Amino acid sequence: MRVKAVLFDLDGVLVSTDECHFKAWSRLAAEEGIPFTRAQNDLLRGVSREESLEILLRGAQKTYSAEQKAALAARKNEYYRALIEELTQADAMAGARETLALCKQLGLKAAVASSSKNTRLILQKTGLAEEFCAVADGNCIRKSKPDPEVFLKAAQLAGEEPAACLVVEDAEAGVTGGKRGGMRVLAVGAAQSCPYADHRAASLADPCVAPLLRRLAEQEEEQ
Predict the structure, then answer these.
(1) What whole-number distance in Å separates Cα of residue 103 and Cα of residue 98?
(2) Within its chain, how far is the Cα of 60 from the centroid?
(3) Alpha helices in 107-168 (DSSP H)
(4) Nearest CA to 19 among 77, 76, 83, 89?
(5) Element (H, E) at 6
(6) What is the CATH number of the domain that holds 69?
(7) How would DSSP label each residue in 12-36?
(8) Same-domain status, 46 and 150
(9) What is the DSSP letter of 193?
């Protein structure tokens, strides 16, 4: 089956908000007296805010109640939203707009599949909101990656079967989720080393991306 829809992760694929996340988590960690490094921040890629908080709290010297954890997560999100309010169209990653334009040219549907609850705000700030036929994010799922729920939701919203979808991910959790959902996966950035990805590229700006999309979009006709 040829690919009919491309499901893009947001952070690290279309827009780089890693620094915003790092600054927000670092501020929260400092206020709580918890050590936090960039290496730890890398573990949070593709993971929900609540699960990210649990990872952060592994270094805490005290325990937190469910109410306290909810307050911490809300505080982090407040810091993060203040940072992403400053995003502009210049913050779209290299190759993102060109890849979306190619998808349109090839007749491929483009959708977003992200665990972030701030997905729509980020898309709006970077001028990408109108490029997608569907958005599945942390506001409409119960399980974050590596569970395939967000990808299956995005495929459903795009009106395509999972087997007709290509996931583009930069996190191992996302690659796993895409494969569990029965989809092909293009691993970019830090996820390139995942052995179970179907395709690999440095980023959407990689010269191999355009010919790959063309080949996948025309696969059925070639057969």
Answers:
(1) 9
(2) 27
(3) 119-125, 149-158
(4) 83
(5) strand 5-8
(6) 1.10.150.240
(7) TTTB--HHHHHHHHHHHHHHHT---
(8) no
(9) G
Q: What is the mean pLDDT of the chain?
A: 94
Specify whether 11 is catalytic: yes
Provide the percentage of residues in the chain whose pLDDT is more than 70. Answer: 98
Give the list of residues 6+ apart from residue 195 with CB closer than 8 angstroms, or none: none
Q: Could you say which of 28, 61, 84 is where a domain stops?
A: 84
Which positions ≥6 away from 133 have C-beta within 8 Å?
A: 109, 110, 111, 157, 158
Q: In this structure, what token pair is assigned to residue 222?
A: 């070639």
Place of tokens 């006709």: 221
- Determine the 3-state secondary structure of 130 from DSSP: helix
Domain count along the chain:
2
Question: 219 pLDDT band (50/70/90 cuts)?
Answer: confident
Q: Residue 204 pairs with which residues in a beta bridge? A: none
Residue 108 has pLDDT above 50, yes or no: yes
* Residue pair 29/23 in contact by the 8 Å Cβ criterion: no
Same structural domain, 56 and 149: no
From the candidates 11, 137, 170, 206, give the one annotated as an active-site residue. 11
Domain, as residue range, for 62: 18-84
Check: CB of residue 144 under 8 Å from CB of residue 137: no
User: Interhelix angle for 96-106 vs 209-217, to 10°?
Assistant: 20
Q: Which position among 9, 137, 147, 170 bears the catalytic label? A: 9
Asked if residue 59 and residue 152 are part of one domain, the reply reads: no
pLDDT of residue 221 exceeding 50, the answer is no
Looking at the fold, whether 96 and 185 belong to one and the same domain comes out as yes
The CA distance from 182 to 155, in Å, is: 11
